[in-house]
Specification:
Blueprint lengths: L15 E8 L7 H12 L4 E6 L2 H10 L5 E3 L2 E3 L2 H25 L4 E5 L6 E5 L11 E6 L1 H9 L3 E5 L1 E3 L5 E3 L2 H11 L4 E9 L17 E3 H10 L13 H12 L4 E6 L3 H6 L4 E4 L4
Parallel strand pairs: 1-2, 1-11, 2-8, 5-8, 11-13, 12-14
Antiparallel strand pairs: 3-4, 6-7, 9-10, 13-14
């Protein structure tokens, strides 16, 4: 959990806007929904970057190949065979499918993963009670590399496969990739980070799709996770917590705006008409 003072608002003078969208969940495996999302994303004004996951398709391929998957607290154990699968699925099929769909709607895009041009350097996770295998925690993001792509009017589509300095590929959490890219580029752009997935936003009650919290401030969230004494209580699902941790981490580190919402209504999420906005102070 983040323990830090409230950050100063980032300076926006002479900076262009940059929207970084992370897409995940079942929309990636649904061709019709993915096509619809791509059309929305292509129409986002200004510079933009798309980061994607793809765990459902990776699980399906692993099952077809007879490779058992292990999850701990929603996090994948990435052994050597699983690393091959996620690299093929994330950096291969899903990445190039999204790029092709973006090209079809005249959004000039380039599909990469963190290992390309050492854009995102990571190290193998250690020091935890669970051995996650070939899972990478990010050390650095080459902001200048991504800025060069953006300056050529290219839209980077990033798969969450990174590498360490010795050339070992690593499986890295896509939410964290999106956060670190947004943070790295905050000095060059006014960065907005958007997490798009299956739910309409952060739900006060995970069983009630209408219980969307329009604005969630850090104090309320931190109080909920530490003592669970909020009124009414927050019953945020375990799967949402990594997104919220990444979102508040991004705000702490100078990202201008963080929103969470449905991939099926991305335009409304961006405009603030739906979904959840994360802030440090309540509104």
């Amino acid at each position: 959990m983040i323990n830090s003072p409230v950050p100063k608002p980032p300076s926006t003078s002479a900076k262009l806007p940059l929207t970084i969208v992370k897409i995940g969940g079942s929309v990636i495996e649904d061709a019709e929904r993915l096509t619809s999302f791509v059309s929305y994303f292509a129409n986002v004004k200004g510079a933009k970057i798309l980061v994607h996951g793809g765990g459902i398709l990776a699980n399906q391929l692993a099952e077809q190949l007879g490779i058992q998957q292990q999850m701990v607290d929603g996090r994948r154990i990435t052994d050597a065979e699983t690393l091959k699968i996620v690299t093929m699925v994330y950096a291969g099929f899903i990445n190039k499918t999204i790029v092709a769909k973006l090209q079809s709607v005249h959004c000039n895009s380039i599909g990469i993963c963190g290992a390309d041009a050492s854009g995102i350097v990571a190290h193998k996770r250690t020091g935890t009670a669970t051995n996650y295998g070939f899972v990478g925690d990010i050390d650095s993001v080459d902001a200048a590399f991504f800025d060069r792509l953006l300056s050529q009017n290219l839209t980077p589509v990033i798969a969450p496969i990174t590498a360490d300095t010795s050339g070992q590929l690593l499986n890295t959490n896509a939410d964290t990739v999106a956060r670190e890219v947004a943070v790295a580029l905050r000095g060059m752009y006014v960065t907005t980070l958007v997490f798009c997935f299956d739910k309409p936003g952060v739900l006060r009650n995970p069983d009630d799709g209408a219980s969307v919290i329009s604005v969630l401030d850090y104090h309320t969230y931190a109080n909920r996770t530490r003592s669970a004494k909020t009124d009414p209580p927050l019953l945020i699902s375990a799967g949402m917590i990594p997104k919220l941790d990444n979102g508040f981490h991004a705000l702490r580190d100078g990202v201008a705006c963080v929103r969470i919402g449905s991939a099926d209504s991305m335009n409304d999420v961006l405009s603030g008409h739906s979904g959840t906005e994360l802030v440090y102070y309540g509104q």
